[in-house]
Amino acid sequence: MMIASPQIKLAQTTLGQATLAQKPLSQARSDRAYPLLRAVFVFMALFIFVLPGRPLADLRYTEATGRAVIVHEETKAEARMLALEDALYLAALQGGARIDGFSAVSADTSLSDHFVIRPASMIMDYAVINEVEDETHYSVTIRAVIGEKPEQQCQRSRVNATMYKPMIKINPKVPSWAAAHAHMMVKEILAEVDNHPQIKMTNASNRSFSAKNLSNTNDDFDYMALTSGKTHVHDGDFAIVPEIYIDHARNANGVIRMEHLTVTFVMNGFHGKTYMPAFSESIIAEIPFSTKTPFRAINHLTKSSRTERTAALSQPIPYFVNAATEAMLCQPLIATLAKQGDMLTVPFGRQQGLNENSLAVANGGDTGWTVLKITALNDQSATLSPLDTSHNISILEGKSVEFMELTQ
């Protein structure tokens, strides 16, 4: 008899996704006239259009030029600021525009239309790249990063993970064949992670995970490091510790007694270097394996083989590894800026998924955010510089920055 497929319940973090709701057309109608009061009757149709643009969650470079009239020599500084304001407005419009408008009808039936155009995206940061002044006009050209900083998005395409010794807990009432198969399940999890195309795995399954011992930076005076060695995890990577819990349950329905196993798979993830908890992903599988009735023939026909039972125990493993992988890919890539000479550096590089198009965003600055671009990229480090070169990099030292992909 083929054993019934396990019922798998996933318990995983759900990331919120921003949705753009289209507002319905609303109208305010005037049904009666009051000539004695000589009131002004207004028929207003409010509408909102969103012009086609790029998705607001994208960040991309754009250039725009603003111009302003120089009325006289004393207003040259004012003209420069007006030109800059015009350039910022035009840059923001390149991410799309929202048009609000209404029509007003007065008592003498005259009609007037009113429109207000607002940018649909925001300017994260900008830099002035050119200024031109002639006798009548002042022009300012800027290069800006437009869009919105995404709240939570899966920015990574690949992760590095070090797997430490798994934990196994088995109820004493669990059949011996299931308890013996638990160690084979550990090997299957290890192989599934190792073969996953989005994970580069380091096998440390013979070492127990201890955040306290691993966070000790001076291994020269650490007994464990000197005697058996340590496997450290680089900043931006993950330490993962799988857990397997197997429990036993028996249900009775009249003269029919059914037995099943409850298998819980848990993947605990920790940030590299600090070894602080990053995520915990789990799935639960209900696996029936025995049905007993007063009838021996029925019991014999419904009995499953050991191979079928162990296959049912292993069946949830690919789902479990995929759920844990998604949790790692959706972890934000956050680093602390360090100042080395006249440069800002982070301990992330190509091996952590960065590329030349990655942008780093930090809180602060005139625009609310400071955007930094990668100027030099190595395997495990990157050098950054502010998009606006007028920023004092000493102020940015020690700030946390989050990396995201730049849409060209």
In short:
The protein has 408 residues and is an alpha+beta fold. 19% of the residues lie in helices and 41% in strands. The strands form 4 sheets. Strands 1, 9, 10, 11, 12, 13 and 14 form a 7-stranded mixed sheet that branches.
Task: Please characterize this protein's 3D structure.
With 408 residues, the chain is of the alpha+beta class. It folds into 3 domains: 40-147; 156-329, Double Stranded RNA Binding Domain (2-Layer Sandwich); 333-405, Thrombin, subunit H (Beta Barrel), CATH 2.40.10.340. Helix content is 19%, strand content 41%. It has 8 helices and 21 strands. Strands 1, 9, 10, 11, 12, 13 and 14 form a 7-stranded mixed sheet that branches. The two termini are 57 Å apart.
Rg from alpha-carbon coordinates: 31 Å
What string gives the helices and strands in order?
A: EEEEHEEEEEEHEHHEEEHHHEEEEEEHE
Poorly predicted spans: 12-57
The CATH topology of the largest domain corresponds to Double Stranded RNA Binding Domain
